[in-house]
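Troubleshooting: if your tokenizer reports a length mismatch, compare your output against this known-good record of 613 residues.
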Amino acid sequence: MFQSFDVTSTPQFGAARVGALRNLFDGLGIDGFLVPRADEYQGEYVPASAERLSWLTGFTGSAGEVLVTRDKAMVFVDGRYVTQVRQQVDLAVFTPADLIGEPPAKWISNHLGKGFRLGIDGWMHTSQQVSRLEKALKEIGGQLVLVAGNPLDAIWADRPSEPLGAVSIQPLAAAGVEAAAKIADIATMLKAKDLAAVLITDPSSVAWIFNIRGNDVPHTPHPLSRAIVHGDGRAELFIDKRKLSVEVAAYLDGLATRHEPQAFLSMLGQLAATGARILVDPDLAPAALSLLIANQGGQLVDGSDPAKLGRAVKNSTELEGSARAHEQDGAAVVEFLSWLDAQPAGSITEIAATRALEAARLRVGERLQNPLKDISFDTIAGAGENAAIMHYRVTTESDRVISDAEMFLIDSGAQYVNGTTDITRTVAIGAVPQEQKRFFTLALKGMIAISTARFPKGTRGCDLDPLARIALWKAGADFAHGTGHGVGSYLSVHEGPQRISRLSTQELLPGMILSNEPGYYRPGHFGIRIENLIYVRELAPVEGGDQEMMSFETLTFVPIDRRLIVEDLLTREELRWLDDYHAETRKRLLPLLESDSARQWLTQATQPLFRAD
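Known-good structure output:
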């Protein structure tokens, strides 16, 4: 399997490891140290060798930071992990804190004493993050100390080796644009702005520019690597040759000059020493690189990674590939759901369900000759109260039976060469209480509102986010995560800069793929999430209108559990949308199903609800 169910959280070691870290403070000249979830590449998903936050605290979530001072250890998490963090860390050692409402920089200025010396590893924080920390410390007369080397690595005796995942070429039939053309476009932009070069520090950007994929990080197929693209059209790629086959090495040699990763700092220093104007994305690049450029005499120019929007705005080939990948994935999920429905209540566990879904994806991929390359994240399979943990990861310890009269939430995704998928369905096991059905329907109303939205050019994710919440707000409820995140093209399942959330100010552009996933969670009782992927498209002019308008096109087609819907809470328009969605689902997926039982299940699950009267 692509997913392990081993228990990886180690809260029992928290006190000793925090103590060992504090023992280094005097030698480093600091009063505290900040440990982010990110690695040297600022990735959300990191290799085992970079799981420093988890190693120190026991918390295994994909976002968070821990601030260790001489007498406190604060673990900052967002709303997705409020329940999980309390289950995974030693609360006698660590105190959970709010990553959004009072992040580390704000917490420092609010709670720490004058003269506090905060240590950080400059490779683990971006320039923008460092600026916020410096500002907070200045308010209390403190000091930011960039330590040489990461002190956690000094006390992590059995730290895993860095990964050497094999690199593959992303075919033009899936990428849509040749790598040479992407490099030329970047060089043209640099020349127009009188820039000598740009640092490409995000591995997903490297993968997109060079049309390669990797296997260094769980479930995210990019190779850990960096690049420099010059204004004269030259490109330099810093990647470990042990990851490359003869074919891949020859392909890359036709595009760039290859170097080993350890040559990156010296070559960047040499470039900076010429006084070159170098573009660096302050949201993505480690602060250590910006400091190096400045110290060597280079001219640091803050700006956006030129590949960021390029990979976010999918071309027609990528969109078509994604649509085909979602149809294939939808067939696999239908085979799984039809199997699940046939099992007696109380006979299946969360792990058994997760295994069955992955097996379905493997079978369908083999049958349709588009193999499952990986899952796009660890499947979230939560029954009953476990579903209330938004990013629940089932283990051999937490695995529970999916019982009668409760809901089962399964959030999963897949990686195919032609696309990345992400889908959540919450289904009824037996007769579910009416109150739970009511909240399911309110979340569904939010999902339909986003699906049917029409909005003018220039609209941002924060402008649309309330549409997903208004039905829940009217009921005195909400959900503590964004409505949607960007999704890559056989890349990261969480891709920026596009989002639908309270905080997203990125304009939504045609071709951007996003998730649409309202939910509701009652800790200790139940959780609900309904998720489709959608993409932004231009609309034909509206008769009588005077604005350029856009809308969303749905990519995900899998039945939504009608047994959980309170029909009276849906408007005629919402019922019609649901029936049309189910009719399209039936049309697309029936030809892809192999078994009669799955076809019969799909036909029944997509029967219309709306009754004209």
